[in-house]
Amino acid sequence: MTASTNEEDSPVSNDYATAIGTLILTLVFLLGVPGNLFIVWSILARTRKRSVTTILILNLACADGFIMALTIFFIIYLAKQTWIFGAVMCKGLFYLCNANMYASIFLITLMSIHRMVAVLFPQKLYLISRKVVTRVIMGMWVLVMVISIPSLVFRELEIEPDVSENNSRIVCSPNHTWPTHVRFQYSLETVSGFILPYAVIITCYVLTLRRLRQTQFQRRIRSEKLILAIVITFGIFWFPYHVINMVQVSKICAMSFDQINVSLESCRAVTSALAFLSSCANPILYTFAGKSYIKKNGLAFMAKLFDGTASSEQTASKQKESAGEMNNILNNSATATMG
């Protein structure tokens, strides 16, 4: 444990920011834990047809539900404005949060890639078996655990003076010995956890929409709208966090960087809490997507939604294959006639 000499160099030193952060995280805990558990139960116990999209959503719900359960520790941290859980939990909890960030965006990216393949190359969908999907997801989780290591290394307990109460507080804060450590960690988070995945996602959707406009089968299936909503929601809630990262990395105003750094660190309690909101937003999105099933199916409405997603993916694939077969028949007939 080290001593900190700056009065306001941690996210919990700002009373206003910690109050907002505590309120947001409490809302996240109350909505996110039961919401994501309901998704997991719906898929495992009630869903009959498990498409690739459904399997990815299951993994996303498991990751989000687990991290939502851990928010209780951060609520206590912000409320008490001091860390009471020890050094191991300090490193471990922030490591798991960082891993969840990567896992969420990578799973969303895989959903977008799968939608693109389903539209552009439906004849290749048979190659994407459940065994292949399982191996890809396992590889993704290994990658997530590896690239989250910096958040484990650059995190430790510090003693920070609290002049207002003539006392001191223990904070769990980043420990960047050199400026290069700051640039490395925050650049890795933003580039690997936001910029690159979103570049892939946008590319997938541009190619998908272009193909849909070229084909006669332009019926927008339910899973496509649902995935697009998940992508947009994740971006909205994580964007402020990554803006803070990039401002700290770039050091916009070198002359007054210390003051900027203090302000940014004070904002982290709020931006980090907003990022947590993305994990409890998905159950709400699924509820809106499946609202047409609620009256008829009751608590099974979400399972019905996922069954419908699987059916629509299979239908879209069959339609595209039928179109290809029809084109081949017409081309063969034309060739025979000309012959």
Automatic annotation (TrEMBL):
SUPFAM superfamilies per UniProt: Family A G protein-coupled receptor-like
One GO CC term on file: plasma membrane
Keyword Methyltransferase recorded: no
Location in or out of the cell: Cell membrane
Keywords: Cell membrane, G-protein coupled receptor, Glycoprotein, Membrane, Phosphoprotein, Receptor, Transducer, Transmembrane, Transmembrane helix
TM segment ranges: 20-44, 56-79, 99-121, 133-154, 184-206, 226-244
One Pfam family named in its UniProt record: 7tm_1
GO biological process, one term: inflammatory response
GO molecular function ontology, one term from the record: leukotriene receptor activity
Predominant location: membrane
Topology of the protein relative to the lipid bilayer: Multi-pass membrane protein
Domain (G-protein coupled receptors family 1 profile) ranges: 35-286
Entry superkingdom: Eukaryota
Family indicated by similarity: Belongs to the chemokine-like receptor (CMKLR) family.
PANTHER family: CHEMOTACTIC RECEPTOR, G-PROTEIN COUPLED RECEPTORS FAMILY 1 PROFILE DOMAIN-CONTAINING PROTEIN-RELATED
Name by which UniProt lists this protein: Leukotriene B4 receptor 2b
Organism annotation: Poecilia latipinna
